[in-house]
Specification:
- The protein is of the alpha/beta class and 271 residues long.
- 41% of the residues lie in helices and 15% in strands.
- Strand 3, helix 1 and strand 4 form a beta-alpha-beta unit.
- The model has no long low-confidence stretch (mean pLDDT 94).
Length: 271
């Protein structure tokens, strides 16, 4: 069997053209479908909500953290797609002793493109993967042209409440913030390596960002939460489509018009 190197540096033997795939990563489940291999999916997580018909029809093996190993084994996968951040390392290593497991590690646009290309090669859909990567690059250039040489407003991106947790600078979310013309407000705290630090209201007030962004996932922030934080920032507390900012793969392309509109809104507010 061919040997493939995943994004964590592991060598994995994978059967040529996998036909029984279990995906433990929502954004990569969607990508597999967009690469034309949805018929090969035999198992997904309960958070793999895109595309809707796969969510409704495919066998669910549990969550991204608490997936059911026995259920996965019953599906006899010839490939399991996992992620370094989203899936527990110990449980993934346990699965890798019995099945081929390919692990992604996506923290920025470059590693997202690399992941798409590598999965495309494994699945035998390299040409389609290349098309998605080209569109990601084209969308990037379109957004970057808007804020070239302009001062970037600062923003704090919250993913959780009680306690508040924010997206740190070493995350894909922070990359997508930069993609929309923003500077992560946590940059000023020098907390590289703290991916999702807890933050108090007093610390938010001290940061005094231009924007506070409240994600739709994993915590389902509502307008009432935005209203409660509006006085802790200079411009506005906004509800944000979490999938657009945190799902890597094909989702940023599908959310391209939304991300472009948010870029224009942020820059208009900064002027």
């Amino acid at each position: 069997m061919p040997v493939y190197v995943d994004q964590t540096g592991r060598n994995t033997e994978i059967v040529e053209r996998p036909s029984r795939i279990v995906s433990l990563v929502p954004s990569q489940t969607e990508l597999i479908c967009d690469l034309g291999k949805e018929d090969a999916l035999v198992g997904i997580t309960s958070f793999c909500v895109h595309p809707d018909h796969i969510f409704r029809s495919c066998e669910r093996v549990g969550g991204t953290k608490n997936f059911k190993t026995g259920k996965i084994a019953d599906l006899k996968p010839d490939l399991i797609v996992a992620n370094k951040e989203e899936n527990p390392k110990g449980r993934i290593l346990e699965l890798s002793e019995r099945f081929p497991v390919w692990v992604s590690d996506v923290t920025d646009l470059a590693s997202a493109k690399d992941m798409i290309e590598k999965l495309g090669i494994i699945l035998g859909t390299a040409e389609k993967a290349s098309d998605w990567v080209k569109q990601l690059s084209a969308d990037h250039k379109k957004r970057a042209a808007l804020f070239n040489n302009k001062a970037k407003p600062t923003a704090l991106y919250l993913i959780w409440k009680d306690p508040y947790m924010a997206a740190g600078t070493d995350t894909f979310i922070s990359e997508m913030m930069a993609e929309t013309g923003l500077e992560n407000a946590l940059q000023s705290r020098g907390e590289a390596g703290l991916r999702y630090p807890r933050i108090t209201k007093e610390e938010i007030e001290a940061l005094n960002p231009d924007y506070i962004l409240l994600s739709s996932e994993p915590y389902p922030f509502k307008q009432e939460h935005a209203d409660a934080l509006k006085d802790f920032c200079r411009k506005a507390a906004l509800l944000i489509d979490g999938e657009a900012f945190s799902w890597y793969g094909s989702r940023p392309v599908k959310c391209g018009p939304y991300l472009l509109s948010m870029t224009k809104q942020f820059l208009a507010g900064a002027s």
